[in-house]
Structures are given as structure tokens and as C-alpha cells.
Design a protein that fits this description.
single chain; alpha+beta; Ribosomal Protein S5, domain 2; Butyryl-CoA Dehydrogenase, subunit A, domain 3; two-stranded antiparallel sheet; 9 helices; about 15% strand; rod-shaped; RNA endonuclease activity; hydrolase activity; YicC-like_N; endonuclease; hydrolase
């Protein structure tokens, strides 16, 4: 669910830039940073993102600035009139004391503060012009959202291959654990006999009959049987492959399934009193933990 997208646009009166970032998250958390007065854009974008994104912590940033190209200008007649009145009053006062007054050049008046102003101020004040601009900004936001989704899907394709390889590894380790369990079963009888002989050598008076020995071996076999855990691990692997092949969001289901993988691996390790079986169980836990980390990246 990691991705980044940016897009710039403008309409001659203003320029804007969208930036979208997405990182891992259990649910959808959209954080917005945008200019004041664009509540309609924010509301529409949030609705679209909620409809198209299932999970992830998403940051959306919108910056709008005045277009610095060649903005149209207009004369502020009120400001010009104020400057003219002040100039005429000053000229009259100068003439009253016998001072010569030179004519005022129009370009000098134009340069007075406030006389010239951007023409788009008038257009921005109109609700129809603002609504049209908001529509353009939102369209670019949708395009940026398309790019973000494409980036997330590219990451998802890579994660699919990683997870598929990890599922294969789980199945291979289940086969390895089964072989180790068979070797342990074959070794159980001789190992128990050696323990009894060691007790005898230490002075223990106990003498086991063949029937009692068989009972002890059967009890050990029942307590240490891992066939059920291995069967469930393989069933979970099959379910994981179905999820990886499915269309639509599967992250939550996969996250739950990995917990079930881990449960079986823990039980297997608790029953493993044989070196090779313990090694297979610990390796299983390592691979499953790696799967858990990757599953949290899936929508």
C-alpha cells in the first residue's frame, strides 16, 4: 500500500499542485492539507478516495498559488480618483504660495500604490468562476489518485511474488517437518530403551515389560504427533494461494490467515522434542513472521 503521486495544473488565473502519499495501515486513514475556502474540493476528494482505496494511511496535499505568468491587470478607479484628488489639492496649495506646478504624467499615477491590480481578482469573486476552477482542481486530484493507485498496484504485484514464494517455502518446510517426525518415530523405541538402560545402570530397580514399553511408546507417539498441525499448515497454504489469486482487497483476510499459520507453527514447536523437527518448526516461524510483515502491506 505504499505509493506516491504528484500532479500540477492551472487555468491561467491560478496554479496548483497535488501530492499524494500512501503508507501501510490497517484501515483507511486520509489526512488532508489544503488551502482554506476549498471545502467542496476536500469533501469530493475524500469521498472518491474512500470509494477507491480500501486500506492505507494516505496524505493528500493541495497547494494553490496565483499564476505568475502574465496576469491581466486593471485600473482601480477608486484608488486612481483618490490619488488625483490628492495631486490636485497639492498643486492648488503650491500655486497659492507662488510655486510653479508641472503637469502630472499619467504613468506617474499608474505607478501609485493600489492604482493597478490583477484583473483576476474580479473573476475570483464570482461563485461560477470559483466552481469552474474547483472542478478543474478536482479533476487533477482524480488523475493524481489514479497515479497513486497504479503505484500501489505495482507494489502489490511485487508483493504477490514475494508472498507466493513464502507460501512455497512453508509447504517445503511442512514436508521437511513430516520427514523429521517420521525419523523421530523410528528413533522413539531405541531412544526409550537407552533411557531405561541408563536408569538401570544408575541403580534403578525398575524393569519394564514389553507391554508397558509399548504403552509408553504409544503415549509418546500421541503426545508428539504433529500430523494434524502439518495438515492444517498445508490447508492454510492452499487458502493463501486462493487469496493471492483473487481479485479485490484481500489484505485483512491474508493477515488473519497468517495468524493461523503462526498458531500451527507454535503448536508444532511445542511438540518437537527432536532436533530436526525443532529446526523445521523454528524455520517455519521465521518464514511466517516474514509473511506477516508483507501481509500488512496488502490492501
Amino acid at each position: 500500500m505504499t505509493g506516491f503521486a504528484s500532479l500540477e495544473g492551472g487555468d491561467g488565473r491560478a496554479a496548483w499542485r497535488w501530492e499524494l502519499r500512501s503508507v501501510n495501515g490497517r484501515g483507511l486513514d486520509l489526512r488532508w492539507k489544503g488551502p482554506e475556502g476549498r471545502d467542496g474540493v476536500e469533501k469530493a476528494f475524500r469521498a472518491s478516495a474512500a470509494a477507491r482505496l480500501g486500506r492505507g494511511s494516505v496524505s493528500a496535499s493541495l497547494r494553490i498559488s496565483r499564476d505568475t505568468g502574465q496576469p491581466a491587470m486593471r485600473i482601480n478607479r477608486a484608488a486612481l480618483g483618490a490619488w488625483l484628488s490628492a495631486a490636485m489639492e497639492a498643486a492648488e496649495a503650491a500655486r497659492s504660495v507662488g510655486l510653479a506646478v508641472a503637469p502630472i504624467a499619467p504613468d506617474a499615477l499608474i505607478l501609485r500604490p493600489g492604482v493597478m491590480e490583477p484583473a483576476e481578482d474580479e473573476a475570483d469573486a464570482g461563485p461560477e468562476a470559483r466552481a469552474a476552477q474547483d472542478a478543474l482542481i478536482l479533476a487533477d486530484g482524480e488523475a493524481a489518485l489514479d497515479a497513486l493507485i497504479a503505484a500501489r498496484e505495482a507494489e502489490g504485484a511485487a508483493l504477490h511474488d514475494i508472498l507466493a514464494a513464502q507460501v512455497d517455502r512453508v509447504e517445503a518446510l511442512a514436508d521437511q517437518a513430516e520427514a523429521a517426525a517420521d525419523a523421530r518415530a523410528a528413533e522413539a523405541g531405541p531412544a526409550l530403551t537407552r533411557k531405561i538402560d541408563a536408569l538401570k545402570a544408575a541403580g534403578a530397580p525398575a524393569e519394564l515389560s514389553p507391554d508397558r514399553l509399548a504403552q509408553e511408546l504409544a503415549l509418546l507417539a500421541v503426545k508428539g504427533d504433529v500430523r494434524e498441525e502439518l495438515d492444517r499448515l498445508r490447508a492454510h497454504a492452499t487458502a493463501a494461494r486462493r487469496l493471492l489469486a483473487a481479485a479485490g482487497p484481500v489484505g485483512r483476510k491474508l493477515d488473519f490467515l497468517v495468524q493461523e499459520f503462526n498458531r500451527e507453527a507454535n503448536t508444532l514447536c511445542s511438540k518437537a522434542d527432536f532436533t530436526f523437527l525443532t529446526e523445521a518448526g523454528l524455520e517455519l516461524k521465521t518464514v511466517i513472521d516474514q509473511m506477516r510483515e508483507q501481509a500488512q502491506n496488502i490492501e
